[in-house]
Design a protein that fits this description.
alpha/beta; 6-stranded mixed sheet; 4-stranded antiparallel sheet; 12 helices; 10 strands
């Protein structure tokens, strides 16, 4: 390994409290991907991806722009299905069930695998109605009291309740950017998913709002499997247990975050992390 590895360690130190608790990459997988290839028409965007994602961890996807991170993320709840001309080969299973199998209930899949996008997208409704939306359309509550309880629970889990509890009937668009993103997280949490996908959820936020999102992600892994795309390698080092490095549509390396940012297995990974390209 290059003599520059100590520099990697100093630039991307992993908090001690996370490294002590970080599970093995070989732990029982919640999500299993085998030999996945993905195409936009004739253009192949992902090449033979094989990956295991353990339960109740934070896994970060890193790599240069256009390397396939977000495309791969969206294969995990079939969000790419809405794009005409796309095609998937290979297998993605959640708890052993193939999500691309014939007859898969896509609505149920997306209840189990929630999504938080790069840009907050609150509905032009009240704060309460934003969080209640998925509960109502999926008929997941049977009474007004249960609905109100689930909304409060989701807002608490998203670390937003104390800030909005007295203005639940105000427009969600009146919230700050960071609050809107946490509201979108609450909306995803309300239907109690098992996996949460996050596509650069803090990239448009200021440092204080970003810090709150990061603290929230670390706390949420106690209950959920979280997969996050980020261009911010310091962020990946701070909040993730495992990290996967993508380049040109290929999975180059997946490893514990501590090892990835101190002594990666692949020279290409080291070159990216040390800024030689990307």
């Amino acid at each position: 390994m290059s003599t520059e590895m100590p520099m990697i360690a100093s630039r991307f130190s992993v908090p001690e409290k996370q490294t002590e608790a970080a599970p093995s990459v070989k732990a029982t997988a919640k999500v299993t991907v085998r030999n996945l290839n993905f195409y936009y028409g004739r253009a192949q965007a992902l090449h033979d991806i094989t990956l295991d994602i353990p339960e109740r961890i934070v896994m970060a996807f890193i790599g240069p722009s256009g390397c396939g991170k977000s495309t791969f993320l969206r294969t995990l709840n079939r969000m790419n299905d809405v794009i005409p001309g796309t095609r998937v080969e290979g297998e993605v299973t959640i708890d052993g069930r193939d999500i691309y199998a014939f007859g898969t209930d896509i609505v149920d899949l997306r209840r189990r695998v929630g999504m938080v996008f790069q840009k907050s997208n609150p509905f032009p409704k009240t704060i309460f109605d934003n969080v209640a939306y998925g509960l109502r359309i999926n008929r997941l509550t049977s009474s007004k009291d249960e609905l109100e309880g689930r909304v409060e629970e989701a807002l608490r889990d998203a670390a937003l309740w104390s800030e909005v509890k007295d203005r639940l009937q105000s427009s969600a668009l009146s919230l700050s950017g960071g609050q809107q993103q946490r509201l979108c997280i609450a909306r995803a949490l309300a239907i109690r998913p098992e996996v949460i996908l996050m596509d650069e959820p803090a990239s448009a936020l200021d440092p204080i709002a970003t810090s709150k999102i990061e603290e929230l992600v670390v706390d949420l892994k106690k209950q959920y499997t979280i997969i996050i795309v980020t261009h911010n390698m310091q962020q990946a080092a701070r909040i993730s247990d495992t990290t996967a490095f993508f380049l040109l549509g290929k999975l180059i390396e997946v490893n514990s975050t501590e090892k990835m940012f101190t002594a990666p297995d692949e020279k290409t990974t080291e070159d990216y992390i040390t800024g030689r390209f990307g």
